[in-house]
Write a structure and sequence with these properties.
By secondary structure, the chain is an alpha/beta fold. It has 10 helices and 15 strands. The chain has a 9-stranded mixed β-sheet, covered by helices on one side.
Length: about 350
């Protein structure tokens, strides 16, 4: 079956989340034949309001009823981070394919449980690392692989996130599930892994609280990632620096690629190739929304045509790296990344 012949999927949205309302539901509907069957919320009132705003017909007040609906073939898990593990296990047991919001879980062992449960059930489990589907970053990966900048030697990312009022809740107050590392740095780690086609070997990091988050919750993180291929990368992620565009840079021995404004939930950003100090604009191709690309790839993967944009293993590896970053910030030492999530 070719991708163009693949029928769409019936979806359940787990959690009345902002990200699903603003982007994921529309992205699901952009895939021909796909539909959002309903939304699961622990609050019937919140679920009904959400359904009215999004045009979803069905509202489930229990996870069991959502997973029992035979119209549902796949679920989007957009609930709080600490709920992902149990909900993914339940969905896998029910034979439903799963796109789970990042981070997959709060611990690497939980994330591995989720991956293994999906494998045992024969369902697709993917991680919603949609930023890697931005057109400039897709082009950047292609050019790096083609040797356009020679051998990569260094990289740098900057991601200052402005939180809208609706999500200024547990991300800023929960010392276990919240904070910049799990919310933001897990994205930048994934992007660098994807671009460099290499895993993080070690991390040296610092975190801080600059008054946006509650005491004990980091709202800024910075540090260095050492990749297995020898690349050194600096990262800066925060809720506190909001006035400049995000950026992703990869520097090789024959040139540099610089993507600006690219870490956005909207189709955005530009890409430049730098050689001998001269900037050359790069055409990244059609600027399709990253969530639309992610949902398209996921649907094709379920139908046996290709792989999801970011797999469960991708989610595990990125999580392992930010866990190491948190440990490094706590100890003041460089931390080797534990590779518990190696596939058999």
């Amino acid at each position: 079956m070719s991708p163009d012949e693949s029928p769409g999927l019936g979806w359940a949205v787990l959690g009345a989340s902002w990200i699903a309302e603003a982007f994921v539901i529309d992205a699901i509907r952009s895939v021909p034949g796909s539909e959002v069957v309903g939304v699961y919320s622990t609050s019937a009132e919140r679920g009904r309001s959400y359904a009215e705003r999004t045009g979803v017909r069905e509202v489930w007040s229990s996870l069991e009823s959502a997973l029992a609906d035979q119209r549902v073939e796949a679920v989007f898990v957009g609930t709080r981070n600490e709920l992902h593990h149990d909900q993914v296990l339940a969905a896998a047991a029910a034979g439903r394919h799963i796109l789970c919001e990042k981070p997959l879980a709060l611990t690497a062992s939980d994330a591995i449980d989720m991956r293994d449960a999906a494998v045992a059930a024969g369902v697709v489990l993917a991680t919603n690392h949609a930023f890697r589907d931005q057109a400039p970053l897709r082009k950047m990966r292609e050019m790096i692989a083609a040797g356009t900048i020679g051998t990569p030697v260094a990289a740098r990312t900057f991601f200052g996130v402005t939180l809208i009022d609706r999500v200024k809740t547990w991300r800023l107050s929960d010392r276990v599930a919240g904070g910049v590392l799990l919310d933001v740095s897990v994205h930048t780690v994934d992007i660098l892994r994807h671009l460099l086609d290499s895993e993080v070997a070690a991390v040296q990091a610092m975190i801080g609280n600059q008054g946006v988050a509650a005491a004990g919750v980091e709202d800024i993180a910075t540090g260095t990632l050492l990749f297995e291929n020898g690349v050194l990368s600096n990262f800066h992620d925060s809720y506190t620096v909001n006035h400049v565009p995000s950026s992703v840079e990869v520097h090789g021995d024959a040139g540099s690629l610089v993507a600006t404004g690219v870490l956005s939930v909207h189709p955005a950003g530009d890409l430049r190739l730098m050689v001998d100090g001269v900037a050359h604009s790069v055409d990244s191709g059609p600027m399709i929304g990253p969530y639309m690309m992610t949902l398209r790839s996921f649907t094709y993967a379920v139908r046996g045509a290709g792989a999801p944009s970011a797999s469960a293993d991708d989610g595990i590896r990125s999580l392992e790296a930010v866990i190491a970053a948190h440990r490094s910030a706590s100890t003041g030492q460089m931390v080797q990344v534990a590779r518990l999530g190696e596939s058999a």
